[in-house]
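Predict structure. Chain length: 127.
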Amino acid sequence: MIAAVPQRDAAAGIATPRAQQPGITRTDLQRHDLSIPGREVIQTRVDLAPEVVAPRHSHPGEEIVYALEGTLEYRLEGRPPVMLTAGEVLFIPDGTVQAVKNVGSGNAAELATYIVEKEATLVVLAE
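Prediction complete.
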């Protein structure tokens, strides 16, 4: 696996990949420690332009996806594809390799809530 290089946003205290893939915009909204030692919650809005694919990747913890707009196709390793439209949700277990594609003709967006290992690289690209 290849890890994305984190960059710390000093004002928000959020580590994000330095370079965003063209057509994908990640907007970090909040980050907080949890009552579980060594874990934190991070919320991020992820926007994908039409036909853009977020490459295969994983996260160091659970991800809860809430589709905000558009139509997104999720491919989770070992499972059939899942389509989400606005208002639908998806739970992605810890370490699951995944890819997501905007299959619509307009912008697609999700609210991603991560329950992850504190200070770990949030997005880990898969080979």
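Summary: The CA atoms of residues 46 and 71 lie 13 Å apart.
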